Amino acid sequence: MTASLSQPQVIEAHNYINGQWVPARSGETFESRNPATGELLGLVAKSGPADADAAVQAARAAFDNWRKYPAPRRGELLFKVAQILAARKEEIARLMTQEMGKVLTEARGDVQEGIDMTYYMAGEGRRQHGFTAPSEMFDKFQMAVRDPVGVVAAITPWNFPMAIPTWKIMPALITGNTVVFKPAPDTPLVARELVKIFEEAGLPAGVLNMVCDTGRAAGEALLQHPEIDIYSFTGSTETGKHVLTETAGRLKKVSLELGGKNAIMVMDDANLDLAVDGIVWSAFGTTGQRCTAASRIIAHRAIEKELTDKLVSRIEKLRLGDGLQDTTDVGPVINSKQRHRIHEYTRIGKAEGANLLLGGDIPTEDGLDKGHFYRPTLFNKVRPDMRIAQEEIFGPTTVVIGVDSLEEAIKVNNGVKYGLSASLYTQDVNRAFFAMREVATGILYINAGTIGAEVHLPFGGTRQTGNGHREAAGAAIDFFTEWKAVYVDFSGKLQRAQIDMDM
Ligand code: UN1
User: Fold this and answer.
1) Domain with 300 in it
2) What 3-state DSSP class applies to 164?
3) Exactly one of 113, 257, 304, 471 is catalytic; which is it?
């Protein structure tokens, strides 16, 4: 427990507006606390509409120069950011573990994902290609080029406090947009480190701004602001719908990355030990607080009992604790409100008639009593239509559902309102390819769990996981740019497309 005392003092975290660190106009602050220990880590600017407006105005004013700044040079700046981030990886990972609880090895992975995304998007400085196409007319040239959209609002969650901000900020900046970044109230200190790195790398004032808030005061102001052109949001489906409806009247471009109810399907021919490794990692890594977490295990009945027994003996051994200690397998959940929600799902599962095999309670042992811990929880005898098999829990809870065939497994997998990530364990190549065609999902893993997305493939999901956009890879370049079609007629005479065809 002493490890978290390595944070010597309470950090004063201001907003970053037009290249300056400034307190909230109101002078008010809110607290950032360690969810494992309750320790106070930071006092953070509690922003409101005036702060949000100042940030948007700064981003608007900076846009005209930034969009004209050569993209390869924007890329050089991002390379510098990636290098600083890499040099500071360990320090930021430790801060992340303290601020949001995930174990240190996973926090390092989160920072690494941010580094990867920054290098990837830095390279886009020399790509972000458009295209040319032949004209149907004589002496006419045509091409499609990309334009930045304008001022971006990047609204991010706490579960990947470095990776997810980079998914939004890096593609937005490399394509010439300017950004107002609103980090989650639970992780403003990690967000601040990212912004400090941009400052150190020499980003011009106003290109990236940050406003922190708790509750929704600044966030709501961003949703209503007429000077924001494009929104990128990751969070709950409920808030995502709110973002979409609030901005619809202004016809804004909105990317939503929302919930998941991801399943691991285990067939009767699967390597069960491999499947158990994948399930434990995907269900309880980040304490189950990933959009991609495996919160359903769909098991072929021929191996269901053996798989469940193996799972129970592995899950029983998971050690809860402060993520800074290397004996810890599972850290706390983010806050008491989330823990309450997770515990409520345990109650719901029992009431629905599911069988609670493990966990389902709040540990009270010494060392865990000051944090928001929840025991890894496993239900079996779960029917696909139960609420615990349909709704996103976002915690260390997973459920086993029995099926008789791959077809039935896929039907169960597809029978939820989300479609982010899915996984199939089988040794049969025909089953693997059948699943690749039939599983309705944004991400599919064969013989790996539901987590582990890399930055150069599109990230996102079908159905109510989002609104059709994808993050990462080239998909992010598409989202943060508008196509401009340019026609150059060098014939010296009027040529009417679709009409003067017989010249
Ligand atoms: C999320 O859960 O919100 O594939 C993001 C993964 C990570 C990203 C998860 N690379 O689980």
Assistant:
1) 262-446
2) helix
3) 257
Read off the pLDDT of residues 337-373 as tens digits, 9 standing for 90 and up. 999 999 999 999 999 999 999 999 999 998 899 999 9
352 with 230, same domain?
no
Is 306 within the bounds of a domain?
yes
pLDDT digits (tens, 9 = 90+) for 370-428: 999 999 999 999 999 999 999 999 999 999 999 999 999 999 999 999 999 999 999 99
pLDDT at 7 over 80: no
Does residue 1 belong to any structural domain of this protein? no
Specify the residue for token string 């602050």.
29
Arithmetic mean of pLDDT, 30-50:
97
User: Does 455 contact ligand 1 (Cβ within 6 A)?
Assistant: no
What's the mean per-residue pLDDT of the chain?
96
Buried b (16+ CB within 10 A) or exposed e, 187-210: bbbbbbbbbebbeebebeebbbbb
Q: Same domain for 132 and 222?
A: yes
* Catalytic residue selected from 106, 124, 212, 291: 291
Classify residue 455: in a domain, yes or no. no
SS3 250: coil
The region that residue 136 occupies, defined by phi over 0 for left and psi between -120 and 50 for alpha, beta otherwise, is: alpha
**Secondary structure of 361-430 in HEC code, one letter for each residue:** CCCCCCCCCCCCCCCCEEEECCCCCCHHHCCCCCCCEEEEEEECCHHHHHHHHHCCCEECEEEEECCCHH
Query: Which conformational region is residue 144 in: left (phi greater than 0), alpha (psi within -120 to 50 degrees), or beta?
Result: beta
Q: What is Dmax (Cα atoms) for the chain?
A: 87
What spacing in Å lies between the alpha carbon of 448 and ligand 1's midpoint?
14
**Amino acid letter, 265:** M
